[in-house]
Specification:
5 helices, two-stranded antiparallel sheet, homodimer, alpha+beta, 8-stranded antiparallel sheet
């Protein structure tokens, strides 16, 4: 049973709530009429405004060329209920299989990019490639997040965090101490 | 009560176990006889061998100049028992206070760098600055991890993951499905 999320526009300068904790994400892309999805664990936020994210996508990955050529992608945030799909997507090749079909995922049209959003994910972040200067040496894209689609509930999704060796950490409880922060540091 | 860890050398190409899940880390630095510590949440692994990590360190941070000039730092991995210290370190300035003294942390000499390791942290990663080309535009350092110091136990530390707004996610349980991975993808 998969949760049906009712998503709305979320400020792109606030995506740290979902991405800074470091969950595994699914990156969807589209090029010449073909869709693909990959799993990604090596990325970081780089700037609030514009909202920038840097990510390593290995050059022999099928998605690498699709993102480089189309200059866009969508970062999708799965929760624990999609963990088996996350593993499956990371362990088959997009040049021989339609991963949306294989894993019963639904492509949804974005507002800014042609790459498909994954409906079943908690959050979707439409991105365009912003800077490619680190591609030759590090296979590292700098993306700008153009739009974030997030549901009202839950406020904090139960994400999965990869540790290598086939083992994932599942997000636990949240604790807050905002009163101990300087306002400018929140 | 703080845990006393008995650490040993850990392969630097295996640090994803600790850093890929995205925990908050403490970055210690040393320049001209002065030590400093900062909290950091915006970083990612970039390569296994050499072991590379990219990180955003804001340019008006006191640590920025110390790391840029000394060309080295230590990434220290705290667990939940140091959460109040993590918050405190992130909310005071290193140009006016000795954070080791203020937070009763112990600087330990490294093997490869002059920047001090934080004894009370679960893990310590000695780093040198490897590439500065993204500093002017993005305040983004690329570091090489030269040595990792990790205890035998616990295998997976209970880390803290920042979400903004003064709220942290605490690492939850670990689940493993290595049998569902292709060997080369583990």
């Amino acid at each position: 049973m998969r949760t049906v999320y009712h998503k709305h526009d979320f400020p792109v300068d606030g995506v740290r709530r979902f991405l800074e904790p470091g969950p595994i994400v699914l990156v969807s892309s589209r090029y010449k009429g073909e869709n693909n999805i990959m799993t990604m664990g090596w990325y970081t936020l780089m700037q609030f405004t514009p909202s920038l994210l840097g990510c390593f996508i290995v050059g022999y990955n099928h998605s690498f060329d699709m993102i480089r050529k189309s200059k866009e992608c969508v970062i999708n945030l799965p929760t624990t209920e999609l963990l088996q799909e996350v593993i499956g997507i990371g362990n088959c090749h997009g040049d021989s299989v339609d991963k949306f079909e294989k894993f019963s995922l639904t492509p949804v049209k974005g507002d800014y990019v042609n790459a498909p959003l994954i409906k079943e994910c908690y959050g979707n972040f439409e991105c365009k490639v912003s800077d490619t200067r680190l591609l030759p040496d590090y296979s590292f894209f700098i993306l700008e997040i153009l739009k974030a689609h997030i549901p009202d509930h839950p406020q904090y999704p139960e994400t999965v965090h990869y540790t290598g060796d086939g083992i994932f950490m599942i997000a636990g409880e949240h604790v807050g101490f905002p009163e101990k922060f300087r306002p400018e540091n929140l």
